[in-house]
Amino acid sequence: MIAPRPSPDEAAASLERATPRPLSRTRDHWVHGWTVAALALAVGALTGVVLGTWGTTWQWRGAANIGAQGAFLALLVTTVVWRDRASRTRPRRALRTAMFGTVTTGVLALGVATPVYLAGLPSPAPWVTLGLAAVVATPGLVAGAMIVRGAR
What we know:
This protein has helices spanning 8-18, 26-54, 61-86, 94-119, 126-149. By secondary structure, it is an all-alpha fold. The protein has one domain. Helix 2 (26-54) runs antiparallel to helix 3 (61-86) and helix 4 (94-119) packs antiparallel against helix 5. The longest helix has 29 residues, at 26-54. It is elongated. It starts with 7 loop residues before the first helix and ends with a helix. The mean pLDDT is 86.
């Protein structure tokens, strides 16, 4: 026996029950974008701390670097857990944009900090350190803004 066809209203109600959430929400764009931006700022700040303390004779420079890296790790874990709990979906092209911004930020951080570590260069002046930290954070900030703007 053939089942009766549902009416258009019944079909629409059934379809609404089958898809309980939209594919993308503005809040998900906001959450993913701010996560990328926060991580980029953290990498920039960590780069600034490393550059600012590495070549000094300050006796606590090792502890400062370890503390900054520990704080960065805690921020990284907290931010990623918050992102996963706060968003229900991953916005379209957010993964690619986030990966591009995060990887570029990381490569810049390595490119800036490696000569200080390997070549034993002295710490740059504070204004240079701040400028380099800002340059390091810029790709991630731009990627985060692009993800947030993708909601519009």
